Amino acid sequence: MVLILILGLLIGAICIFLVFFVLSFLSAGPLVVSPKKNINALLEKLDCQKGEKLIDLGSGEGRVVFAAAEKGLDATGVEFNILLYLFSKVRSCFSRHKGRIHFKLGNLWKISLAPYDVVTCFVFPEVRVKIKKKFEKEVQKGARLAFLKHGNGFEIMRKP
Ligand SMILES: C[S@@+](CC[C@H](N)C(=O)[O-])C[C@H]1O[C@@H](n2cnc3c(N)ncnc32)[C@H](O)[C@@H]1O
């Protein structure tokens, strides 16, 4: 009985993951994690001040958010895959920096970027144009937008 229950839960979790994996292809991009070295290089380059607010759109398992919080930023991740969201949320409970780590379950296209100083994301190249438009419409002057890219690259722009 217990074995059937565990098996059921496991199959359920795999199905949920697969559904969101397919949906992410239709939205901004599937789970591909950024190398930590690239995230740290990006955070150095952004030259962020402690207490600035960063949001990672499509936060995956949360590595950009954790790295940003470690550097003193108030960091938020938004992710629509409930399994990745729960994984990051649970992980954040064990972090030394949990006071400045936030995860939201939701669609990145529905989140207002207005409160944030720094917006990061790792999305399909064709989605970057749409994110850039959203960024320009919603953020304050001086806010920065950073696209993480495959391999070890990134691109940063600032709202004039
Ligand atoms: C390439 S991964 C990036 C993960 C993380 N930001 C990193 O750099 O390691 C893209 C993530 O965006 C999520 N995603 C795709 N479309 C989304 C949407 N519309 N709303 C929220 N999350 C989305 C996917 O589930 C995936 O976890």
UniProtKB/TrEMBL annotation:
Q: Keywords in alphabetical order, please.
A: Methyltransferase, S-adenosyl-L-methionine, Transferase
In the record, biological process GO terms are: methylation
A Gene Ontology molecular-function term? Answer: protein-lysine N-methyltransferase activity
Coiled-coil ranges (or none): none
Q: Write down the InterPro entries for this protein, in alphabetical order.
A: FAM173A/B, SAM-dependent_MTases_sf
Q: What is this protein called?
A: DOT1 domain-containing protein
